[in-house]
Amino acid sequence: MPAERFVEALNLQIARELGASQQYLAAAVWYEHESFPRLAKLFYDQALEERQHALMMLKYLLDSELLPEVPGVGEPRRVFGDFVEPVRIALEQERKVTEQISQLTAIAREESDFVSEQFTHWFLREQVEEVDLFSTLLDVAERVRERPMDLEDHIAREGVGGGETTDPTAPPAAGG
């Protein structure tokens, strides 16, 4: 049985993951509206990935014979000043999530809840990839600020994002 403090923190993280999913979705819609199809696809894919993370967390609690909370989420930001801003917001969001997952890991360790600590390790590895993706994307976006379609070309040329791949080490998701 997961430690009570860990369960409370994981329920909060589920809300954050769903909120992140909504923010990615709002940015994807904005990019599509602004005729940036590759950025739109990247952000749509990220929205699905964040939702999947929330479902993995829900499944962990369900498998632990607990009833997880299914929270509402706040309004995402829907309008952006330019094509760089959603990328900057995404990087800030991913850095914050990294801190939050690290805190989950710390709580599990403090509570000697080693099963829950092990559960968080996959998410920590995932965050390294996410921060790297958006850090690189922001660097490129800043360099091509005057030529926004160059970022679209970069995404196509470098295969940035590429959608969800099956990771055999990933925790199972609720509904899967």
Please explain how this structure is put together.
With 176 residues, the protein is an all-alpha fold. It has a single domain, classed as Ferritin, core subunit, four-helix bundle (Ferritin, Up-down Bundle). It is built from 5 helices and no strands. The longest helix has 30 residues. The radius of gyration is 17 Å and the shape is elongated.
Task: Give a quick summary of the entry.
This protein is mainly alpha-helical. Helices cover 70% and strands 0% of the residues.
Count of discrete alpha- or pi-helical segments spanning 4 or more residues: 5
Name of the CATH superfamily: Ferritin, core subunit, four-helix bundle
CATH architecture: Up-down Bundle
- Indicate how many domains the architecture comprises: 1
Q: Which regions are unreliable across 5 or more consecutive residues at pLDDT < 50?
A: none
Largest sheet: none
Number of strands: 0
* Residue share in helix: 55-70%
Distance between the termini: 22 Å
The proportion of strand residues reads under 5%
The succession of helices and strands, N to C, reads HHHHH
Mean pLDDT: 95
- Tell me the name of the CATH class: Mainly Alpha
